[in-house]
Write a structure and sequence with these properties.
Elements: H1 13-25, E1 36-45, E2 49-53, H2 59-62, E3 63-67, H3 74-77, E4 86-90, E5 95-99, H4 111-140, E6 144-145, E7 151-152, E8 165-170, E9 173-179, H5 184-194, E10 198-205, E11 217-226, H6 230-247, E12 256-261, H7 262-270, H8 280-289, H9 300-312, E13 320-327, E14 343-350, E15 353-360, H10 365-381, H11 391-400, E16 404-410, H12 411-419
Length: about 425
C-alpha cells in the first residue's frame, strides 16, 4: 500500500511518476465546469468502471458507477487517476480531472471515510427537514418567529450554569458581555410588549458541558404563550411530536405520554414523603437510608439535584414522553409557586433525554429581583461568577407581563429522540 500521498489502493512507482508528470505538465488547474454532465470523487477503479461518490441527500444519488467504455478519453487518464480524485464527465463523454487528491501524509483516503460522510449527509438532510417541520408547526399555530441578541449583558440567571464571557470594546471603553445560555429574558420582554405568542430557534452556549447528551454550543427552540399555562405547553409538546412524526415519515413511532411528579415517584418507589418544605437535614438522613453518597457540604439545591439524578430520573420510562412536575420552591428558577408551595414547572423526558424545561412564568418584578440576587449568591457558592442583574427585564415585568407559560427545548435532543441517535456530537460536522 502506497501511503506517501494518502492513497488507499496500491499504486506502482511507475504510475506515481506518470501522475506527477501529468499534474506538472499536462493538467490544467481550475478547468471549466460549464459542460459537466456529472462529477464526483473517485472511490474505486476496477477493470471495467469508475465508482464515484456524487454527494446529494438520498442514498440512491450518492454513488454512481461509470463504465470506462462510455468515456472517450479513458485511455489517457487510466494511468494517472487514483482514488480520492474529483473527476467530471462532460456532455461529450470526455472525462476531466477536476481536483487531484493531494493531502498531507496524515490524511489517508479511504472508502470508509466516504461512507461516514454519506451517513452524515443523510443525517443532515433529515436535520434540515426536521427544522423545516418545526418552523412549519409554529407557523401553523400562530406563533411569531423572532430573533434576539446572542451577545448580551446577562445570559440567564440559572445558578448552576457556567457561562462564556467576553469583552466588548467601544473605543477606550470596555464592557463585559456574555453569550446567551437561553433567549428567555429577551423573549419575555417581547411578550410583555406585544402580548403575542413568540418562538425563536437559536444557538445557545453553556460552558463546561460535554457528554453524549451535552455540548457547549447547541440549538435551542424556546416559545412563550401569553394568557396560557403549563397544560397548554404540554399540549404544544404532544402536538409538535405527532406533527413531526407525520411530517418526517417516521414509521413505528407512536409515543405514549405520562405526567408524573417528584412527590409521586418518591412515594411509589421509595415510600418517601417528599414535600416543598423538606429540609436538607431530612434529605441527608433519607439518602443515607438509600445508600446514596453525598457530601456534608452539599446544600439543599445540591441534594435535590442528587435525588433527581440518582433516584428520580432513573425511574422515568424511556419509552414514554414523560412530563415531570412538582419541583420544590428552591428549584423554581423563573417559575411561579402554586398554593401548596410547589414550583409551577415541568421537565419533559423521552428516550432517556431531558428535552425541555417549562415554566408558568414568574411575572412579579419584586419577587423576580429577589430571586436573581439569591441566584447570584448560589452561583458564588457553586464557584461560578455572579452576573449583573438584567434591569431591562425587570422593567418589562414592571410594565406588565401577562400570565404566560413557556418552554425551552434542546433541538438536537428532540432530533435524537425521533431518530434514535445515541450521541449529540454525531449531529455536528465539527
Amino acid at each position: 500500500m502506497w501511503l506517501k500521498y494518502g492513497y488507499k489502493n496500491s499504486v506502482s512507482t511507475h504510475k506515481q511518476s506518470l501522475r506527477e508528470t501529468f499534474l506538472k505538465t499536462e493538467w490544467i488547474s481550475y478547468p471549466s465546469v460549464r459542460n459537466l454532465k456529472f462529477a464526483g470523487r473517485v472511490l474505486d477503479i476496477d477493470k471495467t468502471s469508475l465508482k464515484l461518490f456524487m454527494g446529494g441527500t438520498t442514498k440512491s444519488s450518492m454513488i454512481k458507477r461509470v463504465p470506462k467504455k462510455t468515456m472517450k478519453n479513458w485511455s489517457s487518464l487510466e494511468s494517472v487517476l487514483v482514488p480520492g480524485d474529483i473527476v467530471g464527465v462532460l456532455r461529450n463523454e470526455h472525462c476531466l480531472l477536476l481536483t487531484p487528491w493531494k493531502p498531507s501524509e496524515a490524511s489517508i483516503f479511504s472508502v470508509s471515510s466516504v461512507e461516514k460522510t454519506s451517513q452524515q449527509l443523510l443525517r443532515y438532510a433529515n436535520w434540515n427537514r426536521f427544522l423545516d417541520g418545526v418552523n412549519l408547526f409554529f407557523k401553523k399555530n400562530g406563533f411569531l418567529s423572532v430573533s434576539t441578541p446572542t451577545l448580551v449583558n446577562n445570559p440567564g440567571p440559572e445558578p448552576t450554569i457556567d457561562v462564556f464571557k467576553t469583552d466588548y470594546r467601544q473605543g477606550k471603553a470596555t464592557t463585559e458581555k456574555y453569550l446567551i445560555t437561553s433567549p428567555e429574558l429577551h423573549l419575555k420582554k417581547i411578550v410583555s410588549q406585544t402580548l403575542t405568542p413568540v418562538y425563536e430557534i437559536t444557538k445557545v452556549f453553556r460552558n463546561n458541558e460535554h457528554s453524549p447528551k451535552h455540548l457547549p454550543e447547541f440549538w435551542m427552540i424556546e416559545w412563550y404563550r401569553p394568557f396560557a399555562d403549563l397544560d397548554d405547553i404540554a399540549d404544544d409538546i404532544k402536538r409538535l411530536i405527532f406533527f413531526l412524526i407525520k411530517y418526517l415519515g417516521l414509521k413505528n413511532t407512536k409515543p405514549k405520554f405520562e405526567h408524573v411528579s417528584f412527590e409521586s415517584i418518591l412515594e411509589m418507589y421509595y415510600k418517601y414523603s417528599f414535600k416543598p418544605d423538606t429540609s436538607a437535614h431530612e434529605l441527608k438522613e433519607w439518602l443515607k437510608q438509600q445508600s446514596v453518597y453525598f457530601s456534608d457540604a452539599m446544600n439543599l439545591d445540591d441534594l435535590f439535584t442528587l435525588v433527581n439524578l440518582e433516584l428520580v430520573e432513573t425511574k422515568i420510562s424511556p419509552d414514554k414522553v414523560v412530563f415531570l412536575n412538582q419541583y420544590p420552591p428552591y428549584a423554581a428558577a423563573l417559575a411561579k409557586l402554586d398554593e401548596n408551595g410547589w414550583a409551577q414547572r415541568f421537565e419533559v423526558y423521552w428516550k432517556g433525554l431531558e428535552l425541555g424545561n417549562a415554566f408558568n412564568e414568574l411575572n412579579d418584578p419584586s419577587i423576580q429581583e429577589q430571586r436573581m440576587l439569591e441566584d447570584n449568591l448560589k452561583k458564588k457558592a457553586n464557584g461560578l461568577e455572579p452576573l449583573p442583574v438584567d434591569t431591562g427585564f425587570l422593567e418589562s415585568l414592571k410594565r406588565g407581563l401577562p400570565p404566560t407559560a413557556g418552554i425551552s427545548v434542546g433541538l438536537e435532543r428532540l432530533f435524537m429522540a425521533l431518530y434514535n441517535e445515541p450521541d449529540i456530537s454525531q449531529l455536528k460536522w465539527f
